[in-house]
Amino acid sequence: MSGDGGDAVREDWDSALNRLxxxxxxxxxxxxxxxxxxxxxxxxxxxxDRVADQLRDKVRSERMRRDAVMAIRRQFExxxxxxxxxxxxxxxxxxxxxxxxxxxxxxxxxxxxxxRTWQVLASRAPGRTGAREPVVTVILSLRGLDALDRGQxxxxxxxxxxxxxxxxxxxxxxxxxxxxxxxICRAYQDILGTLRFDPIAPDxxxx
Length: 207
Hints:
Layout: H1 2-22, H2 44-98, E1 102-106, E2 115-122, E3 133-143, E4 154-160, E5 168-171, H3 176-191, H4 202-205
Antiparallel strand pairs: 1-2, 2-3, 3-4, 4-5
């Protein structure tokens, strides 16, 4: 099964490369129509060398982009582990201390595997049902992976709340650990007034 998938990926990249090669620009090799125009005589060898140089540049560029896609996929998995850890610390540090606890739930991945979604559930303010509800959502997304996409691939992260689904958007990089903690804290501030207050410390409970 994995072999079939690998063959399909290679076919996609081969197709993309063929599309690139079909677009080789030969404008600078065009021959003037006017016989009176001064021009340098062309030779088969000269044209061969110019076309070969363009092809090498395009192949090199496409290989570099393919390497970038592989690197961003690895970063996707590494960043997922960081988000798992950060959300667990959020529940332990803030929700359990002040709001009677919470839980992290990772949603099923879509079939294309390009996004990953987490929800943090907690108890809302009095007057709501006793069941825990989603209060913070984190979405990690891969962008620009298709073989025919132009530009560099990117890893994007979004943190939101029920009333602000796009509260924080950022491009995930080497500072993902700090960026996601900052984003979760901002989400917590956004929903703080909607959470049930149930601190574990007796002095806080009786204050």
